[in-house]
Amino acid sequence: MKKTFDNNWSKSEKHLTQAFSAPSFGHSIDFDYKRDIKCLSKILQKCEITYALDLDFILRFLSSYNCEQRLILVYGLEYEYGYKFINMILDQPESPVRLCTLAMIIEPMVLFARDFHDLLILKRADKNNCNIFRKLLGILLALDNNDIQNFKETYENVFKNSVQKDIELAQDENSIASKLLIKLLEGKRYEVPVHSASVAKIIAQQLYEVRQGTSEIDRDTYTQMFTRDAFSQLAAIFDIYEDKFGQSIQEAIEHQFQSQIEIKCFQDMVEYIRLPSGYYSKILRQALDEKPIDYRTLIRIIIGHQSEDLCEIKLEYSKIYDETLDKTIEHRIDIAEIKHALVMVITNGKNPLSSSCGHALFEHRNHSNLTSLRLSPITTDGMQLKINRSQEAFDKLAHIFKIKHPHHNP
Question: Fewer CB within 10 Å, N- or C-terminus of the chain?
Answer without folding.
Answer: C
